[in-house]
Write a structure and sequence with these properties.
elongated, Creatine Amidinohydrolase, Chain A, domain 1, Creatine Amidinohydrolase, alpha/beta, six-stranded mixed β-sheet, 21% strand, 2 domains, disordered N terminus
Length: 380
C-alpha cells in the first residue's frame, strides 16, 4: 500500500479559508454575536490548515477580519502558513486569556456578546474573560462551527479518504491475529502498530477490541481479557490523516457462535444497508435513521436499540452535525461524510455484533469510503 507522508498541513487555499470565515460570520450576524472565540484545537486546524498548533486562539469578529493569537515561538510559522494577522504572547509573563482580553479591549468592545465553542474552552481563558468583561453576554456557538464544517471541501475529502485507507489497513491487521487465547489488547496492538507505520496520526478515540459479553457495553475498550472459542469479537478502529478522521467497525466470529448472534449480525447488516441506501442530499437525518429503525422494529427489537445511528465525520470522529437520529431534523447535503451504523441490539444472549462505515454523500448517492467486506468475518 502506497502512503504519502503527513506534513502537518494540507495547504489550505486562501479562498477556501475565507469561505469558511464568511460562512461563520454570516451566522454570527444573524445571532447578533460580536465575535466567536475559537480555542479548540480541531477548530484551529479547520481555520489554519495545520495540525502543528497548540496554546492558540482565533478571534472571528462578525464584521471585521479574523486574527490569530499564538505563542511567540509559533507566531512566525503560523503567519507564514496562514497569511493571517497573528498576535503573539510570551508565556509565562502573559497567558492566552490575558492576551485575548487585551485584544478585545483594543478592538473597542466593552460589553461584547462572545460566542463560545461547546467544548474545549479551558477555565483559565474563561476566567480571565469573566473578570475583565463582567457585563459580557456569553453565547453558545458550537453548533455554528459544526454546521459550517459539515460540508467538506475537496481537500478535506481527500484527507478523509486517506484516513479511511489507513483504518482498513488496521482492520486487516486485527483480523489476521484474532483467535482463541489472544487478548483483546494483543489484537489492538497489532492494528495500531500497522496503522501508525503506514502513516496514521493516531486514533481519534479509544479504540475497541472487545469480545463476549463485553460487546454489550456502551463504550467498551480493549482489555487483557483473552478471547474465547465461540465468541464474537467487535473491532472498532480509528485513524487520522492531517487531522481528519476515519472509523470502521467489524464483527469477527471465533469458531461456532450461537445462532442468535448470527441472527443479530444479519439484522444489523440489513439495517446498515437500509440506512446507507437512504442517504441522499435533501433528506432529513431522521429519515436515514428511520430506514434502519424500521428493519430493527420489524424484527421486534426496537426497545433494545439506541436513538442515534450515526454522526458527521471530519476533524472529530463523531461531529455534532449532522446527527443521524430518531428525532434529528438535520438536513443531509452533498459533501457530508457520516458514519453508519454502530449500535447493536442491547439484549443479553442476542446482541453484541456491530458494524460501522464512513460514507460520503454525493449528488448521485452514497459512496462507501471504508472499502472492506461487511459480512461477518470468520477468524482463522
Amino acid at each position: 500500500m502506497s502512503i504519502s507522508v503527513q506534513t502537518g498541513g494540507w495547504g489550505l487555499h486562501p479562498e477556501e479559508r475565507w469561505r469558511r470565515f464568511r460562512a461563520v460570520q454570516k451566522h454570527l450576524m444573524e445571532r447578533e454575536i460580536d465575535f466567536l472565540l475559537v480555542v479548540g484545537r480541531e477548530n484551529l486546524i479547520y481555520f489554519t490548515g495545520t495540525t502543528q498548533i497548540e496554546c492558540a486562539a482565533m478571534i472571528i469578529p462578525a464584521r471585521e477580519e479574523p486574527l490569530l493569537v499564538a505563542l511567540w515561538l509559533d507566531a512566525p510559522y503560523l503567519k507564514e502558513i496562514t497569511g493571517l494577522t497573528v498576535e503573539s504572547y510570551v508565556f509565562p509573563q502573559e497567558n492566552l486569556g490575558q492576551r485575548i482580553a487585551r485584544i478585545i479591549r483594543r478592538l473597542g468592545y466593552q460589553r461584547p456578546t462572545i460566542g463560545f465553542e461547546k467544548y474545549f474552552v479551558e477555565f483559565s481563558v474563561f476566567d480571565v474573560l469573566r473578570q475583565e468583561f463582567p457585563a459580557a453576554r456569553l453565547a453558545g456557538a458550537g453548533d455554528i462551527l459544526y454546521r459550517v464544517r459539515s460540508v467538506k471541501s475537496g481537500e478535506e475529502i481527500k484527507a478523509i479518504r486517506q484516513a479511511c485507507r489507513l483504518v482498513v489497513v488496521g482492520m486487516e491487521a486485527a483480523v489476521r491475529v484474532i483467535r482463541a487465547g489472544v487478548t483483546e489488547l494483543d489484537v489492538l496492538a497489532e492494528a495500531e502498530y500497522k496503522m501508525l507505520r503506514c502513516g496514521s496520526g493516531g486514533s481519534p478515540f479509544r479504540p475497541q477490541v472487545v469480545a463476549g459479553e463485553r460487546t454489550l457495553l456502551t463504550h467498551p475498550c480493549a482489555s487483557n481479557r483473552s478471547i474465547q472459542e465461540g465468541e464474537v469479537v467487535v473491532v472498532h478502529l480509528g485513524a487520522t490523516w492531517n487531522g481528519y478522521c476515519a472509523k470502521m467497525c467489524r464483527t469477527v466470529a471465533v469458531g461456532d457462535i450461537p445462532e442468535s448472534q448470527l441472527s443479530c449480525f444479519e439484522l444489523i447488516r440489513q439495517a446498515q444497508d437500509a440506512a446507507i441506501n437512504s442517504l441522499r442530499p435533501g433528506v432529513r437525518a431522521s429519515q436515514v435513521d428511520a430506514a434502519a429503525r424500521e428493519i430493527v422494529a420489524s424484527a421486534g427489537y426496537e426497545r433494545y436499540y439506541l436513538s442515534n445511528v450515526g454522526y458527521g465525520v471530519g476533524l472529530r470522529q463523531s461531529e455534532f452535525y449532522p446527527i443521524i437520529g430518531k428525532n434529528s431534523q438535520d438536513e443531509i447535503q452533498a459533501g457530508m461524510v457520516v458514519d453508519l451504523l454502530l449500535p447493536t441490539i442491547y439484549l443479553q444472549g442476542y446482541g453484541g455484533p456491530r458494524l460501522t462505515d464512513c460514507v460520503l454523500v454525493t449528488e448521485s448517492g452514497p459512496e462507501l469510503l471504508t472499502d472492506y467486506p461487511r459480512e461477518l468475518i470468520l477468524a482463522g
